[in-house]
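Continuing from the previous page...

OK, I double-checked the sequence for Diguanylate cyclase against my notes and this is the correct one:
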Amino acid sequence: MRRSSYLMSDGALLLLFILCFIAVVFTAQDPNLYFQNIVFLNAAFLIAIITYFTSLTTGLILNIVFIFGYGTFTLYQTVVRGDSVGMQNYFWLIMTPAFTVVTWMLTQGIRQLQEQNNQLQRTNSTLATMDEHTNLKNSRSFQKDATVFMALSKRYEIPLTLMVLNVKYWDELKRMISAEQVTETIYQVSQLSQTSIRSNDSLYMLGTEDHPTWGLLLFTDRPGANVVVDRLRLKMQELNQSDRSRKYEVELNLKIGAVQYEAEHMPTPMDLIVQAKKQLEYDV
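Thanks. Re-ran it with the corrected sequence; updated structure tokens here:
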């Protein structure tokens, strides 16, 4: 399907160039009919443009109107002025519909490619398991991993804690720095979080670039998670005192919430996220 779309669009574009070349050569060959041919060429282009933005049906209707008008004009020249019917009279009867059909083919090819591109983007967003800005696992990965971790925690009685964090006053902060600095800030917080956990713990990007929220699945109990919280706040303090913070003239502060997994009250990963985010409200 994609190959046929490429062939249609590329073939139509090539045909359009060929038709334009033929039309321009034909228009310029006879100086006595130059103005007349320019008018017909513009009419052919106008119908082609209208077809591009509407449909083939509209283009064909306009071609019928053009053929009727052109036939009337030819009849006037033949009967009233006594001119003979030659190649000039048949050329635009063929070229104008040809422009319309080729333009429609080009339009169809482009639309099919756009639809396929949109479908690929939807499929990519559905299947993607990594955040494009931070290369962290996204919410889809979290759903899968959390299901496995929760089952392990329940079966082997291993404590499991979900910690969520975001940047305080993020909406106000975005107005103070550039888009490039926003992206770099998200990356810096991601790196800071990554270096604050053990290798068997997992870090996720649970939000979007507009409202970034990080999630950390920790194989520890709630008191053990406090150690990670203290480590995060210390690293954030060091980041604020670095050259980077002075360069942007902003200070970053984290809101952190954590909840330990309880199978009875949190049967699904979404329940775990909801309970963890509720804890953010108490970190002021």
